[in-house]
Design goal:
The complex is a heterotrimer of chains A (307), B (364) and C (517). By secondary structure, chain A is mainly alpha-helical. Chain A contains 13 helices and no strands. Chain C is 34% helix and 25% strand. The chains are: A mainly alpha (307), B mainly alpha (364), C alpha/beta (517).
């Protein structure tokens, strides 16, 4: 009984962590290049909606994911124009996009699906990998995930490899630490930052699409519920390191999953308090840890060439 | 008055003539662009634009009641907006208006339900207002403290504090031992009981059916005080100095942490007052999502105003009326009110994106 | 045929004309020096050649082909490399990573870089540990990394912008030798400096810039140094006095004692006593390591030293912006170590900090607001500002200290560096009480006229009985103004010279750690 519930808890914790892992991993790379995308939540929400819509219209969740990623990348492109080329305040722009995303997805959802629609949309099946299922306790939780969940871990590895072993990764790190030096070394600060933001957009798009077509097979208004903000906090918590960021995402995922476990175990803890737990953890994390791990020196600071 | 002459002299010199129009033009153009796009979207849905506008107008200002309701909304927005510009004078961005409203509203409800109702001499509503203000101030001040003590970015912390405040309100209205009304009532929705009549804000025009209440006077006083403090007081100058250059301000003997915390506390307090006024002035009972959207609206008002208290008043009225209109538009013309959110998002983005025009740096 | 040809280059920043109709040839295999005062346009010229800025008029050719770089990347492609005044290395990355930055290859290849580094070490004697992090290296070592980075790609033209300002004397010698080596291999070198001593040791030809224009280009064999100085400052150096000589560092000319006929008041009781001051940075590295120093009333004590030996930290601690790890500081009987800036001000300490923009003033605020930044409450009633009273007081102060601005209400940013510094001096010297003044790098980036004004103010303060501590990286400045010079090396004072016994050689030796007490 307890074992079964633990398995459900771990399974749902992982599922809830996946969108945050996607978004946080992309965001980490973008922040290493010096751009903070507070619009992450908006990118995810737009992607979740678009993926649901495209999957519903074509019957193919794969097309849904592609459409979602495309839209999130477009938002990222707009964010990049504003924060890199126009040197706008990255945080304020991000909030603007989040309001816009909330408004437009809510609007379109009501226009297209009507206010009360809860029809399931075509989604991915779980893979049921037998060789994983044999691991005790966590085995079934690990095995019963959709393919996208495994992709999220793959993206962490890919991002780590990019940062550590490629010229682009070196450029990203240089641009985020000291854009003036990078510029003088012949690196295009703007191009590197654009690519960083677009990378964050692609991954946020995958995370958003996961929510609608892989996890819940439906779209609900404001369904990200601040997952993008959690992802940003996970990056801070993880000290701009891909593996620690992954750990922070898992922590947030499990903290969110507690709201299912606690009532199932018939513990007398108000669900409302469990709802705020991940955010409280995030707040404690950034208040306690941000000073100790150095953030990229040029984070949120626009670059302007000067003498 | 002493301070008037130099100001006149400066205007006469035309020292700012080049500067003022862009500062005003950008928000106006941004608003117009956004409203235009909003209309296009309405047209694109196939709804009759005329019908939508009519429903919109009706909701905004179709009757004394609607006008009063719109202004009542504007009052809370103005307070959140004032809070935003107060913090931004110290170069702090308080985006946690929603959480501060929520805390203010929740604690004001608690005060009104538990004890304040029997107080004499208007204290019945003054005490809950004060309690709400303090609750918001604590919520904002917490972000200020984290900034001063730990260097935590206030944009992130105020956002997270909002995400923490909202479940707290939900918790308070779904727990019988907190604020939830007894189950014996007809409905059993998770909401608080109605606050006592004595704690409701007195109406300004009780005879003509307008819901306009004395929150208007409170907001007017707040506008004047914030304007005086930011533009003409030693405190305003110190906040500005700390915001522009912390190290130089410290060297000049200012306790910079104190001013960071103070700015966020006052900012949050204004938001809390706005939340308290929402409950005591028009809603009268607490629901879990009573603050929904007001934080963003207040933030946009603050951004639009470009740091000017007068700008806050204009922006708050604009959004107060827009919100009333959009609700009616959804009900009578079946156009989703989310279109207003789209407009707001566009306004924020356009204004932020045009900062390159208004804050052009002097090279060398 | 010349390697680089500039014709009619013009560059404006807003209304300010930084370069005006510059035409110049740089030959292959020559070391070409650009000489000029601060603000003459030397750095701007380099930045045009390197593509950091683009000219508003005129053309360039490189190797006979048109040359119009839209950014450093394009300049690098054409074989133009530059070592900047401020290093362009990413401090948190390793030497090898910095060297790989901007090289074309998708995947990083550290081995290739190591091989090339060994070649350069053999060719020019440029050796450095590829694994070391930049922020662990000394200034001289960082510059070596910069030069290696430049030479990696086998460039045609090496541009060095004021490379010697941060170096110790022996490091300067090594650098100048490398310049000759590079030129010997057929490449060209542009060396920017305002020090004549270096020019005569390394240059083939020298071009003098003043106020954005070329005054003359001369071949160095048989050139008259005196005439170069005249071209550079626009007047005769003898008639202008020792200040100018100090500012341009004329070879072999040690300026006489300052021309104050009255002479310094003989130093009285101690106003500042620092004993065994220790400061460790956040990484635990000791930046000040048991420094002790006394400054008496009516004397100017200079602190000489290569930058990065603890001067900055000493300045921050005296200003109350950093807390010492150990040790005591007493000003006029009041212990102030670890006190707040306000407490230090109350003890009678005026501070002209090293970083004017970050610490001394708030550029966006008005001149009047900056003049009374520490006394905002002085002009107020019931918490509201009395702006007209403040303006009157500010106008009086600006008159007294010759701060030139159209009004006290204009922003500090609109003032020239010299006027900003005069405003800072005005504020700090108007403090009451005032017994001690710290002036850290007080003339950095200022023009000659403002430098003289600053020197006069500091001397006048001394004559009024203040104790003054002058921290400067300009040896000539210290020798011209100080009554006594102490030399700082690795966070400690390693020697001291009394007025009349100043010698460049002795101080230089102490600065580079060859203690000589």
């Amino acid at each position: 009984m307890i074992d079964e519930q633990m398995a459900v808890f771990i399974g749902s914790g992982l599922r809830l962590a996946v969108p945050i892992i996607f978004a946080a991993t992309g965001e980490m790379l973008s922040e290493r290049a010096g751009v903070l995308n507070l619009s992450l939540d908006g990118m995810m929400l737009m992607s979740a909606f678009t993926a649901a819509l495209a999957s519903w219209a074509t019957g193919s969740p794969l097309i849904g994911v592609a459409a979602g990623v495309l839209v999130a990348t477009a938002v990222a492109g707009a964010q990049a124009v504003l924060s890199v080329t126009l040197r706008a305040n990255q945080l304020v722009v991000g909030i603007g996009f989040n309001i816009l995303a909330l408004g437009s997805t809510t609007f379109l959802y009501r226009e297209i699906f009507g206010p009360l629609s809860r029809d399931p949309i075509p989604g991915f099946a779980q893979l049921n990998l037998p060789w994983l299922a044999h691991i005790p306790v966590i085995g079934s939780a690990l095995a019963n995930q959709t393919g996208l969940a495994y992709v999220s871990i793959l993206m962490v590895v890919v991002t780590w490899l990019i940062l550590k072993y490629t010229s682009f990764g070196l450029a990203v790190r240089a641009v985020g630490e000291d854009p003036r030096a990078a510029d003088k070394a012949g690196i295009s600060v703007a191009r590197t930052r654009y690519l960083g933001v677009l990378y964050a957009g692609i991954l946020a798009g995958l995370g958003g699409a996961f929510m609608s077509v892989a996890d819940s097979n439906t779209f609900t208004e404001n369904m990200t519920k601040g997952a993008g903000y959690l992802a940003i906090t996970a990056v801070i918590f993880g000290g701009w390191n891909p593996w620690y960021t992954l750990a922070a995402c898992l922590l947030f995922g499990f903290a969110t999953a507690l709201q299912f476990l606690v009532p199932a175990l018939q513990l007398d803890v108000p669900v409302a308090l469990l709802l705020l737990l991940p955010y409280l953890l995030a707040l404690v994390a950034i208040a306690g840890f941000v000073g100790k791990s150095r953030q990229p020196s040029a984070l949120t600071i626009p670059f302007e060439r000067g003498g | 008055m002493v301070m008037k002459n130099p100001k006149l002299a400066r205007v006469a010199q035309g020292a700012r003539l080049e500067f003022v129009p862009l500062q005003v033009l950008v928000p106006v153009v941004a608003t117009l662009i956004a409203l235009g796009i909003g209309l296009l979207i309405i047209a694109a849905t196939g709804a009759s634009v005329l019908e939508a506008i009519e429903a919109f107008w009706d909701g905004m200002a179709g009757s004394d009641f609607n006008i009063g309701a719109s202004i009542n909304r504007a009052i809370s927005l103005a307070l959140v907006g004032l809070g935003f510009i107060f913090a931004s004078r110290a170069n702090l961005t308080n985006v946690g208006g929603e959480g501060q409203i929520a805390m203010g509203g929740m604690f004001a409800t608690a005060a009104a339900l538990h004890g304040a109702g029997g107080l004499p001499l208007g204290l019945a509503f003054i005490v809950p207002l004060a309690v709400g203000t303090v609750a918001g101030a604590v919520w904002g001040g917490l972000a200020g403290f984290l900034k001063a003590a730990r260097g935590t970015n206030e944009v992130i912390s105020t956002l997270l504090l909002s995400f923490i405040a909202l479940p707290l309100v939900y918790w308070s209205v779904e727990s019988f031992h907190l604020l939830r009304k007894p189950i014996s009532d007809v409905s059993s929705l998770p909401e608080s009981a109605e606050i006592p009549d004595t704690t409701k804000l007195p109406l300004l025009f009780p005879d003509n059916g307008s819901p306009l209440h004395i929150g208007l006077l409170i907001a007017a006083i707040a506008v004047v005080v914030v304007w005086l403090v930011l533009k003409h007081s030693t405190l305003g100058l110190r906040l500005r100095a700390v915001g522009l250059n912390t190290t130089a301000s410290r060297r000049a003997g200012m306790r910079t942490s104190f001013y960071v915390i103070l700015a966020m506390t006052v900012s949050g307090g204004l938001g809390g007052l706005g939340g308290a006024i929402m409950i005591l002035g028009q809603q009268f009972y607490l629901t879990s999502d009573f603050s929904s959207g007001y934080g963003f609206d207040g933030l946009v008002v603050g951004l639009l105003s470009r740091g000017s208290a007068v700008g806050v008043v204009i922006g708050a009225l604009l959004f107060g009326f827009l919100r009333s209109g959009s609700i009616n538009m959804e009900i009578s013309a079946h156009v989703p009110s989310a279109v207003v959110l789209i407009c707001q998002g566009l306004i924020v983005i356009v204004i932020a994106g045009s900062a390159i025009l208004t804050n052009r740096k002097v090279t060398r | 045929m010349a390697l680089l040809e500039l014709s009619g280059l013009t560059k404006r920043f807003g209304a300010f004309i930084a370069l005006d109709d510059i035409s110049l040839l740089i030959e292959r295999g020559e070391v070409h020096c650009l000489l000029g005062e601060n603000g003459a346009g030397k750095s701007t010229l380099c930045n045009l050649v390197f593509g950091v800025h683009r000219p508003d008029g005129g053309t360039m050719t490189l190797g006979g082909e048109p040359f119009d770089p839209r950014g450093p990347a394009e300049a690098l492609q054409r074989g133009v490399v530059m070592v900047h005044q401020h290093f362009s290395l990413v401090p948190t990355m390793s030497v090898a990573e910095n060297l790989m930055l901007g090289r074309a290859s998708a995947v990083l290849k550290p081995q290739d870089i190591m091989v090339r580094m060994e070649q350069l070490a053999a060719e020019y004697g440029l050796e450095i540990d590829p694994e070391a992090r930049i922020d662990e290296l000394s200034v001289g070592e960082r510059q070596r990394v910069e030069i290696i980075k430049c030479l990696l790609g086998d460039p045609q033209l090496l541009v060095l912008d004021e490379p010697t300002a941060v170096l110790q004397p022996d490091e300067i010698d090594a650098l100048l030798a490398i310049c000759r080596q590079v030129a010997l291999r057929g490449k060209s070198v542009i060396l920017v400096t305002h020090k004549l001593g270096e020019i005569s040791r390394v240059a083939d030809r020298t071009t003098v810039l003043r106020q954005g224009r070329i005054i003359e280009t001369v071949a160095m064999d048989g050139a008259d140094i005196r005439s170069l100085v005249r071209s550079m400052v626009g007047r005769d150096v003898q008639s202008a006095g020792s200040v100018l000589a100090a500012a341009v560092d004329v070879e072999g000319k040690t300026p006489a004692k300052p021309s104050d006929a009255a002479g310094p008041v003989s130093p009285g009781e101690a106003v500042l006593q620092i004993s065994d001051l220790v400061y460790r940075d956040p990484h635990g590295v000791p930046r000040l390591d048991g420094l002790s120093l006394t400054v008496g009333t009516g004397e100017i004590v200079g602190i000489a030293g290569v930058e990065g030996n603890g001067q900055t930290e000493l300045g921050l601690i005296l200003a109350g912006l950093a807390s010492p790890s150990a040790g005591a500081i007493v000003v006029g009987g009041t212990p102030v170590a670890g006190c707040t800036p306000q407490e230090i001000t109350d003890a009678g300490v005026g501070i002209v900090p090293e970083d004017r923009h970050a610490v001394a003033c708030i550029r966006e605020l008005s001149v009047a607001e900056n003049l009374f930044l520490g006394a905002i409450g002085k002009f107020s009633r019931f918490g509201l500002l009395d702006k007209s009273a403040r303006r009157k007081a500010a106008e009086a102060m600006m008159r007294d200290f010759d701060v030139r601005a159209s009004s006290p209400d204009v922003s500090m940013a609109s003032l020239s560096g010299g006027n900003q510094q005069k405003a800072v001096l005005a504020r700090e010297l108007s403090l009451d009480p005032l017994v001690f003044l710290l002036a850290a790098q007080p003339t950095r980036g200022l023009d000659v006229g403002a430098i003289e004004a600053v020197y006069n103010r500091i001397r006048a303060a001394r004559d009024d009985g203040l104790g003054v501590l002058l921290i400067s990286s300009e040896l000539e400045e210290l020798m011209a103004v100080s009554d006594r010079i102490a030399v700082i090396y690795r966070g400690k004072l390693v020697g001291e010279l009394a007025a009349g016994s100043f010698s460049r050689e002795a101080i230089g030796a102490m600065m580079s750690g060859h203690a000589h007490v």
